[in-house]
Amino acid sequence: MVTEVYIDSIFVGYVEDPKDFVNKFKEIRAKGQLPKFANIYFNEEKNIIEINLRKGRILRPLIVVKNGKPLLTQEHIEKLRKGEIKWSDLEKEGIIEWVDPAEEENLYVALYPEDLTEEHTHLELSPLTIFGILTSLVPYSNHNQSARLNRGMRTQKQAHSVYLTNFWQRFDTDISILYYPQEPIVRTFSHNLFRNADRIGQNVIIAVMTQEGYNMEDAIIINRGSIERGIFRSSYFRKYEVERIKYPGGLQDEITIPSQDVYLYKGADKYKYLEEDGIVHVEAYVDEYDVLVGKVSPPKFLSAFGEYTTAGTVKKDTSMLVRFEEKGYVDSVVITESPSGNMLIKIRLRDIRIPEIGDKFSVRHGQKGVVGMIVDESDMPWTASGLKPDIIFSPFGIPARLTIGLLLEILGGKVGALNGRFIDGTPWFGEKEEDLRKELLSLGFMESGEETMYNPLTGEEFKVKIYVGSVYYLRLKYMAENKLHARALGPVTLLTKQPTEGKSREGGLRWGEMENEVLAAHGASLLLREAFSSDDVIVPICENCGSIAVEDDIHHKIYCPVCGETDKIASIKTSYAFLLLVRELISLGIWPRFKVKYKFEK
């Protein structure tokens, strides 16, 4: 049975012995007679050989193993250190191979040299190569669950930081810049490689304990004194854009302060921050619905209601406003040109964000939670030396998540802070727990990292020792001020007459079954009535045939279009969404009939 051979999914021929062909291919590649990035894969199920050369594949280097021994020896490593040979020399000698995910299916890769057997074909350069960039920044991650590491990776992407040093020149959407970013005390080998990626938080003093229940369910308690000293303070930037559009016929928008005779004029108070050119001035403090750029547009459709009068065409106010429930200082204004050649105005708002209840925080190990309470410094527990923690973390977050790496980071952070040095927390190769314990003991502390603390409410000593140390904390982009939303009356959709959806459109809040049960349990029946009657409508129904009656506003009468009845017409209250469904059924040729029954009928 012959085996088909494909190069980049193109059929090129057959071979009789596929395994021998693959081995010879690799031998020739090792001698440099084939490109080093050419990969081969034998799919036994389909009985085909795939040779991959196309660009964009993910490749990674592995050490070649023969007869259970790696070709890379200690002699090679010493020569690399001295600079006598280079990485490229190892590739030329066939000691290092670049493989893609397809070729790796045919390989047997060992993680450690001591794991090698006669069956192994390759060896990892280091166990650390199993990590991605962000996961490799998590200290002592070999002590954590893998699922928790994935969550920790996501939180690092969401942290407030200085993401670029030229952020003040950029107009990016929804950006938060941390005021005082710090480098972590406990770090991994990747820190020097990805130095900027690791400056995304602050080193804080943490106490692992409960405090009046305010840090239950993963919440944390923050010291108000620390917040007043600037911990996790940040600036939130929001971008606005407006374009002066040119229309057919030579008409175009005007960037100016609209006059009172303009259609949809918003009132003089809304334009108070605009300068003569119709653009807001820098460092103006604006609130929701304040005008940032005054714009007047010509009427697009002369037949549109309100835009065609006996006095001639009426221009329309299309000014750019601050979005609903947003505010801030005008940080920067840039006037430029769009790709289509129109005038483009970019405005960036800046809002100072001080940590508050509901803001989300996390450590690099994936232990995330919101602020449950901000406590006065006088009400924070203190240690025997008078130290008050910045954050109180609940101990109940550890057993189920098994983030032992977090506990080791707290211990290492304490040693590093006391000795004024950085701690190597590289997985498998970092400083050992025993060494950290001995060093902490030599500094006059308990080797376990625990300390005696005192109850701020009674002044008495806690009966148990509290685990206290330093840890690298991150403030995430999810802030209560951006999420908080409420609505009473507001806009509705044209089709269903129900409230619009989303905070940006002043939308209503979705009221589900569980919320309904909560209010019913409280006896808030009036509020329930309001919540479920946002699109109420009165529908006339014929009692004879059950058809929807017709309201004739010209002759001021209501009659049934089927049986002509005018006396037996009942008014039924229902939702407009249901009425819309009935009308859609009628349009499909399905005629629904209503059975009207009075409440007090026997």
Provide an overview of this structure:
The protein is of the alpha+beta class and 602 residues long. The chain folds into five domains: 3-125, no CATH class; 137-233 and 360-475, Dna-directed Rna Polymerase Ii 140kd Polypeptide, Chain: B, Domain 6 (Beta Barrel), CATH 2.40.270; 235-353, Beta Barrel (OB fold (Dihydrolipoamide Acetyltransferase, E2P)), CATH 2.40.50.150; 485-531, DCoH-like, CATH 3.90.1800; 536-587, DCoH-like, CATH 3.90.1800. Helices cover 18% and strands 26% of the residues. The chain contains twelve helices and 36 strands. The strands form eleven sheets. Strands 12-28-13-26-25-32 form a six-stranded mixed barrel. Strands 5, 6, 7, 8 and 9 form a five-stranded mixed sheet that branches. A five-stranded antiparallel sheet has the order 10-14-24-23-16, with no helix packed on it. A hairpin with a 2-residue loop joins strand 5 (60-66) and strand 6 (69-70). Helix 7 runs parallel beside helix 8. Residues 302-312 have low confidence and may be disordered.
